[in-house]
Amino acid sequence: MAAEESRCLLGHPAANSCPREQNKKLYLATFAAVLGPLSFGFVLGYSSPVIPELRKINDPKLRLDSSQASWFGSVVTLGAAAGGILGGYLVDKVGRKLSLMLCSIPYVFGYVVIISAQNVWMLYFGRMLTGLASGITSLVVPVYISEVSHPKVRGMLGSCVQLMVVTGILGAYVAGTTLKWRWLAVLCSFPSCIMLSFMSFMPETPRFLLNQNKHSEAIASLRFLRGPHADHALECRQIEASVQDEGLNLSEFKNPSIYRPLVIGVALMFFQQVTGINAVMFYAETIFEDANFKDSRMASVVVGSIQVCFTAVAALIIDKTGRKVLLYISGIIMALSSALFGLYFKIVLPDQNNSSNPDVWFTLNSASPGTESSISWLAVVSLGLFVAGFAIGWGPVPWLVISEIFPLKARGISSGACVLTNWVMAFLITKEFNDFIGFLTSYGTFWLFSAFCCLNVIFTAFCVPETKGQTLEQIEAYFRRS
């Protein structure tokens, strides 16, 4: 049996999904849940159009200098790191559904603070609150979707989390071309309000209910999610076979079935961030301005569109190709494109070596005359390839994998550790991006990102299991018996 499960994890799909399952209400529940990641995307995308506006605003109490702009972009990640810890607690104590509904409160309140801001500290506080909600969302939604889905569609539905994140980022970019920063904050608050309304009609996950010994509620949840003709009792028995009544204590982290998936999950989150994606997306407009593009806002919209398109492609093919293939392709594309983008800055800014200038990323005016216009295509192609590469693999897949590999009793705390790792690394990368540019130069920074992308590929080859087509119980059994 263990050998069979191991073979399954190497890419042979399980054929135990009931053909009588109906997916309409499962898709509805997924749609309600992914309104959270849409809100999360608006939070991430908000800083890109707003930072240039706040750097030029007439009110001196709200005007951002380069250091404040860096904090405005990156402080959201500190809130998200705290949200990961809080989400890990909530998801096991109050359930997946209620955790998701509760996170709409800091979303809305955070935007209210931003809209009514009278000084920079109110802007920071509002961003911190929306970051807190984003951290909870980034943990709870993948868990919710993985637990309500069946293996045939779990990859596609799980990838919709990242698809909605990048859709939110694009929405913020597009809306930012016409809306002032306060009205953009009003718009960004809408998805979380809609999510709260929709989720109130959706079921709790059957796995959480069974873990709470609520058998009849779990059957009702499965009846809603699978339709009336599926074998609900059989699926309940399969889930119950893996549910362990005892709680989790720290000594159990010595068990390979607990610590192995945790190490893999934390490493996936680390490697996702050291590609540099959040630094690129937080400062997308500024990157294009410093690359001497005339309409940086529209360039950012193009970048966001590429991300949405390729994340959608990943969602459509991930249940056929598997998770590891997409991680390989993604890592290779990002490594090459980061190296090319570094080459662009090396050619345009051959003498950039001023680590004493704290504003160096925002005020690069030393480009060689005439050089930029002749090779501007290199910056466009490089950044476009980088975003496409990330979107097709290292964007959606790590979030999907961490929602699949943890045992039920450790899912909350392990997911919390992964989300905390992701957002702490996101903070360090985005906050210290200016310092990287000053210390390593702009081209050196992108070449460092390229080196990390190469390490991503090696890590995938040796450490990441293939989970395509498996139930969560089969994946748990694989780690328990391998």
Brief characterization of the structure:
By secondary structure, the chain is an all-alpha fold. Helix content is about 75%, strand content about 0%. The protein is globular.
| SSE arrangement, N to C | HHHHHHHHHHHHHHHHHHHHHH
Instruction: Assign the structural class, choosing from mainly alpha, mainly beta, alpha/beta, alpha+beta, or little secondary structure.
Output: mainly alpha
Mean pLDDT: 82
Q: Please tell me how large the radius of gyration is.
A: 22 Å
Beta-strand proportion: under 5%
Enumerate how many helices there are, as a single number: 22
The number of E-state strands comes to 0
Give helix % range: over 70%
Distance, first to last CA: 11 Å
Sheet bearing the most strands, described?
A: none
Unreliable residue runs: 1-18, 354-367
Shape: globular
Account of the protein in words:
The chain is built from 22 helices and no strands. Helix 1 (2-9) packs across helix 22, helix 3 (66-93) packs parallel to helix 6 and helix 11 (215-226) crosses helix 12 (232-242). Helices cover 76% and strands 0% of the residues. It has helices at residues 2-9, 24-54, 66-93, 96-102, 104-115, 120-148, 151-176, 181-188, 190-199, 206-211, 215-226, 232-242, 256-273, 277-282, 284-290, 296-321, 323-348, 371-394, 396-404, 411-431, 433-463, 472-481. The longest helix has 31 residues, at 24-54. It is mainly α and 482 residues long. The model is unreliable at 1-18 and 354-367 (pLDDT under 50). The termini are close together.
